[in-house]
Amino acid sequence: MSQNISDTYASQLQQMRTEVLAQLRAQRGGKVGRAESAAEARETASDDWAQADAERDLAFALEERESAELVAIDEALKRIADGSYGLCIDCGVGIATPRLHANPTALRCVACQEKIEHAQGTAPPAGY
Fold first, then answer.
1. Does 92 lie in the same domain as 69?
2. One domain, residues 60 and 117
3. Considering its fold, how many domains does the chain have in total?
4. Beta partners for residue 87, in sequence order
5. CA–CA distance, 93 with 4 (Å, rounded to integer)
6. Which is nearest to 58 in space by CA: 31, 43, 36, 37?
7. Other beta carbons within 10 Å of 98
């Protein structure tokens, strides 16, 4: 992959990283941690504890997803730095440019990703 293309993806990944970090800060209400955020939500919630618990659980799930996304972004940036970005981690073939544009943290080419999803039973229905 050329340096120009790598720089383009690095810029896109840095932007994604900034956005994910902003989302995490917003979910935490600034710089407070999970425990403080949950306690604050419980204190300001109405008497509906079930709703407050559901909202807290949703916030935790979103934070975990965004944390995983942040890890994937950082790993993609490391692959750019070491020159392995854009190569499938399973077969070593170059990942198609449209796939990288759609998902710049992609680890696998479409064929290898489909094999993984099929083995895990998470493949989309035929014709999808």
1. no
2. no
3. 2
4. 94
5. 20
6. 37
7. 9
22 and 77 share one domain: yes
Distance, CA of 45 to chain centre: 29
By residue range, what is the domain housing residue 64?
Answer: 1-84
102: tokens are 């759609």
Cβ(90)–Cβ(76) under 8 Å?
no
pTM of the complete model: 0.67
Residue entry with tokens 């039973």: 121
13 and 35 in a single domain? The answer is yes
Residue 74 and residue 110 in one domain: no
The SS3 of residue 94 is strand
pLDDT tens per residue, range 82-116: 999 999 999 999 999 999 999 999 999 999 999 99
Whole-angstrom Cα distance, residue 47 to residue 55? Answer: 14
